[in-house]
Amino acid sequence: MPRPPTVFVSHGAPTLPLTPSPARDFLAGYGARLGRPTGILVVSAHWETAVPTLGDAAAPETIHDFYGFPRPLYEMRYPAPGSPALARKAAALLEAAGMPAQLAARGLDHGAWVPLMLIYPEADIPVVPLSLQTHLGPAHQLAVGEALAPLREEGVLVLGSGSATHNLGALGGGGTDAAPPDWVSGFTRWLAAAIEGGARDDLLEYRRRAPGALRNHPSDEHFLPLFTALGAAGAGAKGRRVHASTTYRALAMDAYEWR
Questions:
Q1: Would 1 be classed as within a structural domain?
Q2: Span 147-160, pLDDT tens digits
Q3: pTM for the predicted model, two decimal places
Q4: What is the CATH number of the domain that holds 211?
Q5: pLDDT digits over 101-151, tens only?
Q6: Rounded CA separation 75/56 (Å)
Q7: Domain coverage including residue 83
């Protein structure tokens, strides 16, 4: 296939595959627009380690890393194959860039399999998970992405999975279609303008420069996968928002791609 874009998606609640919403509809049709990559390297907000770690399982398990949800959710499986070869190649690229990397027999947490179940429901494309180093911040995740950029030339899709906003304490009533408050809308408008304007420095300093940054992201982990996708896109790539919606009032489900 042609060189794929790099992508950041908001994976929302684990129930996303079961609950009708604009974000679910978008992701369910997104795979057809993306095309079929040779492999998928997915960076999920739900796997954090001290150093970059690649999952090298040949058959990654579906990890149900949540509790208190409807039983059908725990019965879901995403039986995509892994790719030990892709995991080793990604680890070698990180090592060459001066970042120690490890391999581990890791499965796919819900930050990985929930969006992939909608984007590529056939589960027939090899998937390799990559961990976050939340304690090292946005610049580190950007550098991780930059080191992995050569994978795109081989048709690999670099997918960041997190959330455009993620303050679970602010989720209100009104269901999945509740209108967002101004502090959520203001942040997502700023984010779209920064990405589409190529304002990389503003993004890296988002906690100081974005309106409502601390309220929308009390912690970094759900925003950091965006930087890996941004870095893997390369310096000349153009970013654009390909989906915008909110769910449960304060959870922005926006998605971005860089080409």
A1: no
A2: 999 999 999 999 99
A3: 0.97
A4: 3.40.830.10
A5: 999 999 999 999 999 999 999 999 999 999 999 999 999 999 999 999 999
A6: 24
A7: 6-258
